[in-house]
Amino acid sequence: MSDELIVVRCQLGERDAFPELVRHWHGRVERYVGRMLGRADDDVVQEVWLAVVKGLPRLRQPDRFGPWLFAIARRAVMNRLRDAYASPEPLPVEDGPDEAAAVVDRELVAGALSALPPREREVLLLFHLEDLSLDTCAQICAVPVGTVKSRLNRGRRLLREELLRKGYEG
Amino acid sequence: MTPEDLLGRLDAQLSFRRRIAYAAVAFAGLAGSALIGVLWATEPHLPARTQVSFGVLVVIGAAWAIFGGWAVTRRTPLFARDRVVASWLGLAAWMVFAVGALLLAPSVPGWLIVVGCAMGVTAAANLAVALRARAALLRRRAELAE
């Protein structure tokens, strides 16, 4: 059954649809929250789903549920990482040959992400671990696609430095 | 936390009965408050104590209406089916008000007819919008299920 169908059934108020939606997406929400915060946080996950319940009747594009859900999760995480997000963003670096992309691997990314600033951490998580497109990442983060690209480049570079620091040989 | 744990935590927000109860409380408060208001406005030469009592009852009814309205918009949202049920409740509350106002007011003043009709039109329009929204979602569900 497609995500959109489950969401439409939820919007209709069908009793068994919401548990189905939760079972389908809960793991990804929990993983995103856990990796962004560097620890599991059930309260934040609950806050995300509470916002989903409240906002679901007004969701106009049920086929865009995924990005909408991650945007909600991002807001909940931002509330917890307010200080970290408040620090000024570094200037974008020139797009050079992206050697660092070669070292991006799911498990390695997951392990080293906690050392990265939240803006870079979130785009790496959304793009590489959640397999979302650049456009979708930009929509979730409420920034232009170009900003997402520069954050990805900077994030990969920082990630490579972090991995090298931890002894990983690229 | 497993999905089942999470669903347990969201139980209150997902309760159909609770959502409809909030809507029913809102409409009951609104209808009661409006009926007392009609009685108050159309009954001449009421003693001060009675007027104060009516005022308090109007405020109590309005408070329940505001609480129910707040609950269904901010706390426990209404899904398409709930909105249809709530809209029927709204229409029923209007009918109670309309019949009650006719019985309570000795001679129905013109302004009361205008107010009553406006409330009835609002309740009917609300029901039409709710039915239309639900029908659109049902159509989409059928398309997706094919």
> Which class of the largest domain in chain A in CATH terms?
Mainly Alpha
**Structurally, how many domains make up the residues of chain B?**
1
Major sheet size, sense and barrel closure of chain A: none
Count of separate DSSP helical elements of chain B:
6
DSSP summary: helix tally of chain A? 9
The percentage of residues in β strands of chain A lies in under 5%
CATH superfamily (homologous) name of the largest domain in chain A: RNA polymerase sigma factor, region 2, helix turn helix motif
Radius of gyration of chain A over all CA atoms, rounded: 17 Å
| Oligomer class | heterodimer
Write up what this structure looks like.
The complex is a heterodimer of chains A (170) and B (146). Chain A folds into two domains: 3-84, Rna Polymerase Sigma Factor, Chain: A, CATH 1.10.1740; 88-165, Orthogonal Bundle (Arc Repressor Mutant, subunit A). In chain A, α4 (65-80) packs across α8 and α7 (118-129) crosses α9 (145-165). Chain A has helices spanning 3-12, 17-37, 42-55, 65-80, 82-86, 106-112, 118-129, 134-141, 145-165. By secondary structure, chain A is mostly helical. With 146 residues, chain B is mostly helical. Chain B has one domain. The model of chain B has no long low-confidence stretch (mean pLDDT 90). The interface between A and B is medium-sized, with 30 and 27 residues.
